[in-house]
Hints:
The protein is an alpha/beta fold. The protein has nine helices and nine strands. The protein has helices spanning 24-33, 55-61, 68-81, 101-111, 138-149, 152-170, 197-214, 237-246, 266-273, and strands at residues 7-8, 38-44, 87-95, 117-121, 124-127, 130-133, 176-179, 217-221, 250-253. The strands form two sheets. A seven-stranded parallel β-sheet has the order 1-2-3-4-7-8-9. Strands 5-6 form a two-stranded antiparallel sheet. β5 and β6 form a beta hairpin. The protein is globular. The chain binds zinc ion (2 copies). Residues 93, 121, 123, 180-181 line the site of one zinc ion.
Amino acid sequence: MIHIPKWDGHTHTAFCPHGTSAELGRYLDRAVELGFTRYTVSEHSPLPTNWMENAELQSEMAMDATELPAYFTYVAEHKRKYEGRLEVWTGLEIDYLPGKPEYTLELVEQCHREVEDWVISLHFLPGNKGMRCLDYTPQDFEEGLLGYYGSMEKVVDEYYNQIEQAISLAVKLPGSRRLGHVNLIEKFSKSLPPIDPDQQEKRLMALLPKLAEAKVGIDVNTAGLRVPTCGKPYVPVWFINRCLEMGIPIVFGSDAHRPEHVGEGWSYYEDAINGSPAN
Length: 279
Ligand SMILES: [Zn+2]
Ligand SMILES: [Zn+2]
């Protein structure tokens, strides 16, 4: 058995417009109850003004830039409050923005004194009428992305092309850093045309040496288990094992958007690492 820190490294708060208003203390109490010893609060960071044509949808994606100082204060207060019981790390889930990496780098420059842990995620791809969210709804994916690229194969290629760009940006993040939910493209896979498993495996394999060289970790994000159109974590077991072999850091992430999500899917992570035959 490999000893692994019981760490939930990807979680959200009331600062997330598509989450709940539950107090952070409720998330942290749940983590303590489940025996976690470390916990990263990784809220979605602000997006550039007019990033999406659909302004209303954009406002649901992330906090406003003016809220960042209050977020850091909020996490710092809880960090102190839980000292000795739970190691609370101040994090941010930042976006790799296709065509606009400089925005994220500027944000990193602005916040690197506060942030101890970075999750860099790809949630947007260029599509019909500008930037489209790839994890909003299956209908939106179909209209905004599938309709634009013409085939799932092309959407998938564009997705992993941008993921590779995200790794190149992640190299510049100071300290602890990892790539968020590497297979988020599978979120609606049960209600969209199928993704070619060979294509996907090939693209994932190609990421491994890049991650190893860049010293960028992987968020073993289990949120897909909660999504009926996905039904599985966003990182396959074989990929977790290759990361371990290649010395790529891996951290479990529940992607909790409500207190009861904290720690969900931990056993998948633990079993993957310990080579359970169930997987
Ligand atoms: Zn979210
Ligand atoms: Zn995310």
